[in-house]
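Lecture notes, part 5. Sequence design as translation. It can be helpful to think of inverse folding as translation between two languages: the language of shapes and the language of residues. The source text, in structure tokens, appears below.
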């Protein structure tokens, strides 16, 4: 092989490697699990022979409601708040989120909750293992807000904290989650 052919061969090998890597990149995304027969949804972690399942206690919204919610549009007369739970080290526990100390929804890892609330000030609270974390939300009618419930599990137990985020910064991650609740408070 001549010295003139070596750069061409290297370029060909690098190109083939890049194409192979890009085709495998799609395989790295975890597929969304199907909804259970009873309408609940489970997030799965672990090997197929010994998985850990974290399931919603109630049936989740239909696929049509999920598709509409993932347009991330506001509603006239309501403040729309999305609760995103999708952090890489999230603890595998169900964490209920309440609004103003009343009803709300249960979150699981890699989940999304849409809440339609009356315009104004609200307090969201996450409760787990006898602990809680709160965040204050204030918004106008038609406005869309996103808050992230970041969790981590470790030897010292589970921890959760809130972060107010911009939709543009988390939209891709939010689209990769499952809508597990669609809450409408008295408007």
């Amino acid at each position: 092989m001549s010295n003139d052919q070596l750069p061409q061969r290297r370029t060909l090998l690098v190109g083939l490697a890049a194409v192979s890597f890009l085709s495998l990149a799609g395989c790295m995304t975890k597929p969304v699990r199907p909804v259970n027969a009873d309408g609940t949804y489970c997030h799965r972690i672990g090997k197929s022979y010994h998985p850990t399942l974290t399931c919603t206690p109630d049936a989740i919204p239909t696929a049509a409601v999920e598709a509409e919610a993932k347009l991330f549009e506001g509603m006239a007369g309501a403040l729309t708040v999305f609760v995103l739970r999708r952090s890489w080290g999230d603890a595998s526990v169900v964490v209920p989120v309440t609004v103003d100390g009343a009803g709300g929804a249960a979150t699981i890892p890699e989940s999304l909750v849409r809440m339609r609330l009356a315009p104004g000030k609200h307090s969201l609270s996450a409760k787990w293992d006898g602990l809680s974390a709160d965040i204050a939300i204030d918004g106008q009618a038609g406005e869309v807000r996103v808050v992230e419930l970041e969790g981590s599990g470790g030897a010292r137990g589970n921890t959760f904290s809130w972060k107010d985020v911009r939709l543009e910064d988390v939209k891709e991650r939010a689209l990769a989650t499952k809508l597990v609740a669609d809450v409408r408070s008295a408007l």
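The translated text above is only one of many valid answers, since several sequences can fold into similar shapes. Residues 18-29 have pLDDT under 50 and may be disordered.
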